[in-house]
Amino acid sequence: MKKNLLAVAILCALTSGAAFAQQAESPWLVRVRAVHLDSANKDSTPLGLSVNNKTIPEVDISYFFNKNIAAELILTVPQKHTLSAGGADIGTLKHLPPSLLLQYHFDAPGFKPYVGAGVNYTRFSSVNLPAGVDIDRNSWGAALQVGVDIPLSKNVYLNFDVKKVYIKTDVTAGGAKLGTFKVDPVLVGVGLGWRF
Hints:
Blueprint: H1 2-24, E1 28-38, E2 42-43, E3 49-51, E4 54-64, E5 69-75, E6 79-85, E7 88-96, E8 99-105, E9 112-128, E10 133-135, E11 138-153, E12 156-165, E13 168-173, E14 176-182, E15 186-195
Antiparallel strand pairs: 1-4, 1-15, 2-14, 3-6, 4-5, 5-8, 6-7, 7-9, 8-9, 9-11, 10-13, 11-12, 12-15, 13-14
């Protein structure tokens, strides 16, 4: 009987300790990633537009409402791209594409997979194109995500992440709309995260 009571007492202590550790875990997680941007380059204009692929830096800040639900703000610096028409370079532009996603983090032993969905806003700037050719400076679209955090040590994670972001802009020439250019990139990232 005493052994049973002792076992129950130990189990209760361990359970309450684990629950306390979970409650004490900070709701903030910051990740730094290197992300490869691979553009879909879907163009409905007669120009055959495309932008170059590149690897960019990315920082995101996540806030956990509980152990499964989090919101993530994804940030980078304005990225310069070369715009081509029919395979020939015709100019350059910069884009700043912050995204805000709501995530669900699954309970799994040894690693923490998650999925996310939200909205992307892209601002185009420093647009340098041939005379008469222009693009809309603003784009709103969906953003989808799947990723995993792998614990390396207490509060430090290795992160792998794949996102599909919907970015498009109307293209005009001489004030007349030629069509829509969809960048719609897939972004594959790897980085480190810190829970604090």
